[in-house]
Amino acid sequence: MRNDRGKAHVGVLVLVVLVATIAAVGLSFWMSVNRIGELSTQLGNQYKEYEQRVEEFDYGSAVGKLREMIQTIGAIDEQTDSWSWTVMGYVPVVGVDVNTARDTADIAQDLASRALLPVLGDAESIVADEGTNDLGTVLSNKLDAAKVMVGDLQSAREIVADCKQRADALPASRIEQVNKAVEKVREATSTANETLDAIAPALDGIDALLGE
């Protein structure tokens, strides 16, 4: 009888530990989900400010806003890479939502750091004050920056197209905060080419300057 009672006691302890662990994972996961919702709202606001800077041809400030966006996306990445997300990734059904959130963050990172940031940096260089009155030096520096920008623009458009395709293929999530993040990323991939079109005038007349 004592042996049976001992086994029952151990079984109860195991059950209590298991329930407590599941509760801890669930609580950590949902706290992280809410944090991602806050970060997604912050990211959306930063993107709007970024677009406004581009429309004003204030490329220096636009680059600053892009870097802020990249930091925010990095914070979202940290949330989706946390231990609770890793555990939940193995849970049927919820695992799909975990992958959707992670893929959304990856797309946002590619769009901001690989497509938009290089082009904005080029545009900033083109309009920047060279700090010299030597026309030859100024022209040489601007031409070099413009040549780089031509290539970066082409690459950026390809990356944007890829990001849009990936964003459009994301499945609907059962988590509201993840769906909102997906919506914002899809919007960004749809408007990114408009942003590139707004930057392109910085290259006006470059063909003539290059003798092409």
Describe this structure in words.
The protein is mainly α and 212 residues long. 84% of the residues lie in helices and 0% in strands. The protein has 7 helices and no strands. It has helices at residues 2-55, 59-80, 83-88, 94-127, 135-168, 176-199, 206-209. Helix 1 (2-55) packs parallel to helix 6 and helix 5 runs antiparallel to helix 6. The longest helix has 54 residues, at 2-55. It is elongated and about 65 Å long. The protein starts with a helix and ends with a helix. The model is unreliable at 5-10 and 12-18 (pLDDT under 50).
The stretches of 5 or more residues where confidence is low (pLDDT under 50) are 5-10, 12-18
Helix content: over 70%
Radius of gyration over all CA atoms, rounded: 24 Å
The shape is elongated
Mean model confidence by pLDDT: 79
